[in-house]
Amino acid sequence: MTGPLATVLGLASKAVDVGVPVLIGIAGTIYDILEKKAGMSAAEIHAVIQQERAATHQALVDAEAREKEAHAKATGG
Amino acid sequence: MNRLATLLLALLLCSCATSTLGKIGQIQAGVTGVRKQVTTVLDDRCMAASLKCPKGELETCKGWTDCRDLRRALYASADGIQIQLDMATSFAAAGDDKKALTYFNAACKSLEELEASLRKYGILELIGGGK
């Protein structure tokens, strides 16, 4: 089978491999993209970008802290 | 591994909005999605790597530092794209669509490079083993 239908079926079948958090995240992002099709003001885009940049920085700090803590617990350090 | 991310990338790369701000908004949301994908995959990978490191040697443990540095680099790349989009937004708001599109196109190019990096490091996989 070829063409768009095969692509859709391929997506559906492979989706079972994907973890629920990832699926939820992707669905949310696609929703965001489609929602933004309606249009955002420059001020709204600036605000979203600032939020995302802050979230990116925080995610990095939090992840490294979690890993250091987990390593310390696992090794009894 | 997240194969559905390909769909997300296809959506954002086509950027189907008609206005410059609309295009910027869509790509911005896509970059955020990609960054979250990096978080989802590399947080698990780096956590697993950290647990394999010897006691008291995490900061010098190659398995973890390689993963940590990759995550830092990919985050920095995503952040750089957000800055490009922020510039594009500023020019669009000022009515200079030509400069806005210059920054927007640069952001799209950077996003393509980021996507290539994500595939290289196994953070994204293309359905059907495509390009």
Descriptive account of the structure:
The complex is a heterodimer of chains A (77) and B (131). Helices cover 82% and strands 0% of the residues of chain A. Chain A is built from 3 helices and no strands. Chain A is mainly alpha-helical. The mean pLDDT of chain A is 77. Chain B is mainly α. Helix content of chain B is 75%, strand content 0%. Chain B starts with a helix and ends in an 11-residue tail after the last helix. Mean pLDDT of chain B is 86; it is low at 127-131. Chains A and B meet through helix 1, helix 2 and helix 3 of A and helix 1, helix 2 and helix 3 of B.
In terms of topology, how is this protein built?
The complex is a heterodimer of chains A (77) and B (131).
Chain A: H1 4-15, H2 20-36, H3 42-75
Chain B: H1 5-14, H2 20-51, H3 62-93, H4 97-120
Helix pairs in contact in B: 1-2, 2-3, 2-4, 3-4
